[in-house]
Design goal:
The chain is an alpha+beta fold. The N and C termini lie far apart (about 60 Å).
Length: about 190
């Protein structure tokens, strides 16, 4: 009786290296943006803030609950940064920014195809639903694409910035995507 060794195709490092369809999926931007969900989520209006504040726990417990909720929605790393309240980049005076990160096999900045944009789509979903949850608690929350999420993620202790200004984490190295920051007045305990 001879033993046959099984070879799994997904165990190779680069299983798609010579596949032109995969290359197109990762690197070719869609000709029609309605073929993606990113524009749909980006352009969706934020909901109303519930008029009655929810009874919440201490800022430390609330931060823990918020991180668990973000992970439930798909975030792999979550951090909270303290914001300067009298800053031109923060005209609404939000005290906190919530940063959510997902693993990114391909860098969305250099992989504009539908497949390369999956981390962006995941990040948009997480921040949209998480900010809606915060508003349902009666607190302000808005997604802020202009805040420099990678710098805030480093401030929140998710990793460090490399020479190019990219976040590098202990868990994923540079293969990570930081979604747009959620600015909020929900009482939280900042990290970092």
């Amino acid at each position: 009786m001879s033993i046959v060794a099984f070879k799994f195709p997904w165990s190779r490092k680069d299983v798609h290296g010579d596949d032109p369809y995969w290359d197109f999926f990762i690197n070719t931007p869609p000709t029609d943006l309605t073929n993606t969900v990113t524009e749909l989520i980006r352009n969706a209006p934020a909901g109303n803030i519930f008029p009655t504040l929810a009874d919440i726990h201490t800022p430390e417990i609330m931060a823990h609950h918020l991180k668990e909720m973000a992970q439930y929605f798909g975030a792999e790393l979550v951090g909270i940064a303290q914001l300067e309240t009298n800053n031109t980049h923060n005209p609404d005076g939000y005290p906190f920014a919530v940063l959510c990160a997902v693993r990114a096999e391909y860098d969305p900045r250099v992989s504009p195809g539908i497949g390369g944009q999956v981390p962006v789509q995941n990040g948009l979903f997480i921040t949209f639903v998480l900010s809606a949850w915060i508003r349902e608690l009666g607190f302000r929350a808005s997604v802020a694409p202009h805040l420099g999420a990678e710098t805030l993620a480093a401030q929140a202790g998710l990793g460090t910035l490399n020479a190019e200004g990219r976040l590098v984490t202990p868990q994923f190295g540079a293969k990570v995507y930081i979604a747009d920051a959620i600015c909020t007045d929900l009482p939280l305990a900042a990290d970092g």
